[in-house]
Amino acid sequence: MNLLEPRAEPSRTLQWAAPPIAIGLMLVAGSVLFLLLGRDPVQAFRVFFIQPLESGYGWSELLLKAGPLVLIAEGLAIGFRARIYNIGAEGQLIFGAICAGGVAIHAAGHETAWTLPLMVVAGAAGGMFWGAIPALLKTRFNAEETLTTLMLTYVANYFLSWLVHGVWRDPAGMNFPQSVMFGDGALFPVLTEGNRLNASIFIPLASVLVFQLLVKRSFLAYRLEVGGQAPLAARYAGFPAGATVWVSLCLSGLTAGLAGVGEVAGPIGQLNLNLSPGYGYAAIIVAYLGRLHPLGIALSGLLMALLYLGGEAAQMTLQLPAAITGLFQGMLLFFLLGADAFIDNRLRLPRRTA
Amino acid sequence: MTTRVQVEPRIRLIGITKRYHSLVANDQVSLQVAPGEIHAVLGENGAGKSTLMKVIYGAVRADDGELMWNGRQVEIDSPDAARRLGIGMVFQHFSLFETLTVVENIALVLDEPFDLAALAQRVESVSRAYGLPLDPHRPVHSLSVGERQRVEIVRCLLQKPQLLILDEPTSVLTPQAVLTLFDTLRKLAAEGVAILYISHKLHEIQALCDRATVMRSGRVTGEAIPREETPASLARMMIGRELPHCAIPAYLGQRRTVLEVRALSLRSEDPFGTSLEGIHLTVEAGEILGIAGISGNGQNELMAALSGETPTAADSVLLDGVPIGRLGAGQRRDRGLGFVPEERLGRGAVPAMSLARNALLTGHRKGMVRRGLVDYAAAVRFAAAIIERFGVRCSGPEALARALSGGNLQKFIVGREIAQSPRLLLVSQPTWGVDVGASAQLRQTLVDLSREGVAILVVSEELEELFEICDRIAVLAGGRLSAPQPRAATDAEAIGLLMAGHSMSAAA
After folding, report:
1. Does residue A7 form part of some domain?
2. Number of domains in chain A
3. Which residues from B are below 8 Å from A225, CB to CB?
4. B372 at interface of A, judged by CB pairs closer than 8 A
5. How far is CA B453 from CA B58, B218, B414, in A?
6. 3-class DSSP state for residue A189?
7. Is residue B305 within 8 Å of residue B266, measured between CB atoms?
8. pLDDT tens per residue across span A301-312
9. A15 part of a folded domain
10. Are the Cβ atoms of A239 and B333 closer than 8 angstroms?
11. Residue B501's pLDDT is what?
12. A13 occurs within a structural domain
């Protein structure tokens, strides 16, 4: 029997209530998980969600991790609203990082005031280029972007691997697959001594404002949304169909590329094979958890960053495996999708007997 | 001719009530249909007909009331349960997979072992027996709308229904095809099948149905034997007032050609579409040119070529004497073209967007976008003005397009196009699925607009409508357009023959 029946109109309440519900369910399920693992759920909860925020360092780490997540998610959300599903932001991040890293490696030893800005431009362009490939494939050959973007992530990863194993390998790096450490002129300045949080945080901050304006007020975003929701209506109105694909993929590639720059010119400081702890994938959850809304994404980005920090703390304090972060991310997405089903549908209650 | 034998009704509804929040879609609705009876459910859009049918078909659960099936109280909690009882439904919007063949589509819904060869034979024999010729191996995308409807009907018939529900079945058929459908339905009724026939076409109901239940605003407002009523008395029960008539004044303004189409030939993008061949036509300021024909004969291709969704050779389409064939849809709109497409949801309007945001779709030219930024307040004002002027029934400019009934959304889209003061208005199927009251209002709006000097081109499958409002009528069949005839110089029969693809000379 069909348990759901469509609502006449989507529930606006649930549209915003779904993320808190999903977070609540994640906490409940998480507690059960901790119990099954033989840990005290109250203590585990403290380690996971409270402890990381008890110090200034913790907060700086939170922002450090939230930055790339928010930045990437803002770009992805534009595409998701247009029903262009770029799930390869991870690859665009890596390619952006490669381009920025290339600039830094070539400038090594003689950095100027232009090195860092050039890295930012190169990273943005690189990410955009990596997003433009699926756009070309989709507009030219009608290739599904969900597949091409994902596959290009592997290409970017192997390309990075080839570089750091070969031409860009640090000659003094004991044969580790990594580049030289970037000079200070190729790094974002740290904001406060002793923390890793750096000036790149201003890029995601600015992006929230820019995307808020773009989504709420611009005709461009409106046309993209029409193109995504009703391609025939876009055609009817004379909005070019290809533009939706190009803008969506290039823009999300651009933000992912910028996030890549923030990593290599920030806490990483070189090119290596562990550039990103899956920010490009986690940002997909961040975008949906934030309701594809620029301000909502800022909040959900902070939560997702906390999951990363909590996961690290749980590894150290509770000796839990690293997979714990992924588990919580997965539960969150799972419960969110479940709760979202009730936006357009409602439960069919058993009929009252008259 | 209704023989009232005391038999158990096939289906009996007692006091069915269905509420959506504050809206009562069905309020204490009762009706019964006997075996072999063709029973009309008559009412305007939004009267609650569809909700009632969904209750019977198990797609929606009533809040209150009882449902008796062959004298036994039943709970129908899913369409599957309805089908098991022997209830078949032919929907207004078809649910067929375009890439599959007829027989594959039918096999998908049948609860039986998958044997396409045997099923194809059954499809053929059933379709022949009921006068609904159908090739089981043709892919659905190559079928006309009328043929698709046959697939839906045959699909129901294969399940040997005891009750068949048809929702506005004739809106897509030629006059001749309607007669064929009626023969089929009468044959079924003679075999004891009860038929619920939802429609707002009074003459059809009078020709076909034994009894009618009339609904308005969710309530039953009357029961009638249609043959003993007049269209006017039925309309009164349905809309609560007299049926409005369309007033056609003469055009007194200057006559000049606004749209000219010269030797337009176009290969269809769709491999199963119809290519246009050598189309010539002109539309003058102050006149309505009607294009009759069954869907699938090049209507979509012609409208796309005129609206700019499909560009053509530059001098095939001229607006005010200027070649616009190469211009896209947006550029043609900039030059004073308005277009009301046949699909309202998804093409004329974005379903999940508010009316204000849908006003922006083509109305953005009216000062709603400045330096790339949207003036949302202007869009709200624009939408509110349309809602007010055209009597669009909705909760306001923030109502979602998909929450409106077909007729109300159509009023909104027509209103949006008119509010941009076009010089040329293209309208496809202006009153498809729109109720009587709203249809009359829409037709009058078009007539009035043309008399203000706008050139209007209407594509419609409803001959009556074309004869009511058009100054000249042409027929599009097989991608060729017949020579337009003044309304007074032709009649439904001649047009009907041209629609069925007979030679041009037949109309002369």
Report:
1. no
2. 1
3. 350, 353
4. yes
5. 50, 41, 17
6. coil
7. yes
8. 999 999 999 999
9. no
10. no
11. 67
12. no
Kindly determine whether residue B372 and residue A218, on different chains, have CB atoms separated by under 8 Å: yes
User: CB distance A8–B347 less than 8 Å?
Assistant: no
Does pLDDT of A99 surpass 60? Answer: yes
CATH 3.40.50.300 domain residues, chain B: 11-239, 244-336+423-508
- CA-based nearest distance A225→chain B, Å: 10
Chain A residues within an 8 Å CB radius of B350: 225-226, 229-230, 233
Provide the CATH number for the domain around residue A66: 1.10.3470
Q: In the structure, how many helices (H) and strands (E) does chain A have?
A: 13, 2
Nearest CA in chain A to B305: A236
Distances (CA, A) of B70 to B21, B35, B75, B366: 32, 9, 13, 59
Per the CB < 8 A criterion, the answer to whether B152 and B90 are in contact is yes
Q: Do B373 and A218 touch (CB under 8 A)?
A: yes
Residues in A 186-225 with any Cβ partner in B closer than 8 A? 217-220, 222, 225
- Hey, what CATH class is B11-239 in? alpha beta
CA atoms in the 13 A half-sphere facing the CB of B362 = 34
> CB distance A237–B362 less than 8 Å?
yes
Q: Do A235 and B329 touch (CB under 8 A)?
A: yes
Q: Is the pLDDT of residue A262 over 90?
A: yes
Looking at domain B244-336+423-508, which of 3.40.1710.10, 2.40.128.20, 3.40.50.300, 3.40.190.10 is its CATH number? Answer: 3.40.50.300
At residue B268, the pLDDT reads 81
Q: Which of A258, A273, A129, A278 minimizes the C-alpha distance to A203?
A: A258
Q: Give the model's pLDDT for residue B507.
A: 36
Contact: B360, A222; criterion CB under 8 Å: yes
Please check whether residue A52 lies inside any domain of the structure: yes
- Chain B residues within an 8 Å CB radius of A233: 346-350, 361
Nearest CA in chain A to B354: A9
Helix, strand, coil shares of chain A, percent, nearest 5, are 70, 5, 25
Give residues with Cβ within 8 angstroms of B228, minimum separation 6: none
Residue pLDDT, tens place only, A162-179: 999 999 999 888 889 999
| Res A238 pLDDT > 60 | yes
Query: A238 contacts in B (CB within 8 Å)?
Result: 308-309, 328-333
Cα A302 off chain centre by: 11
Give the range of the structural domain holding residue A237, as residue numbers without chain letter. 40-319
Residues in chain B where the model's pLDDT stays below 50: 1-2, 4, 503-508
Tell me the per-residue pLDDT of A275-315, one tens digit each, with 9 for 90 and over: 999 999 999 999 999 999 999 999 999 999 999 999 999 88
Q: How many CB pairs under 8 A join A and B?
A: 88
Task: State the Cα–Cα distance between residues B354 and B402, nearest whole angstrom.
Answer: 9
A238 touches B at CB < 8 Å:
yes
**Chain A CB within 8 Å of residue B364 CB:** yes
Strand-pairing partners, residue B428, are B459
Question: Which residues of A are less than 8 Å from B357 in CB distance?
Answer: 222
